[in-house]
Amino acid sequence: MASITIAIPDEQLEKLQQLARESKVSTEDLVRANLEDWLANSNDDFTQSASYVLKKNAELYRRLA
């Protein structure tokens, strides 16, 4: 497994640590779980948004073509 190091402001780290304590998990596990969720769903969100825009503006795109 690879590792990554990022710099974040102290206040964001404190918020992450607080959320981790409330969830009874480590800060690393909290970040990893949210990253996995974001990666799994980000493509679906983009696809849904793109489909909405294309459908909404279909007539305009047809006239411009």
From TrEMBL:
According to the record, the segments passing through the membrane are: none
Q: Name one GO biological process term.
A: regulation of DNA-templated transcription
- What region holds the Ribbon-helix-helix protein CopG domain? 3-40
Q: Name one Pfam family in it.
A: RHH_1
> Which InterPro entries does the entry mention?
Arc_rbn_hlx_hlx, CopG, Ribbon_hlx_hlx
Which domain of life, per UniProt? Bacteria
- Its protein name is Ribbon-helix-helix protein, copG family
Q: Which organism is it from?
A: Chamaesiphon minutus (strain ATCC 27169 / PCC 6605)
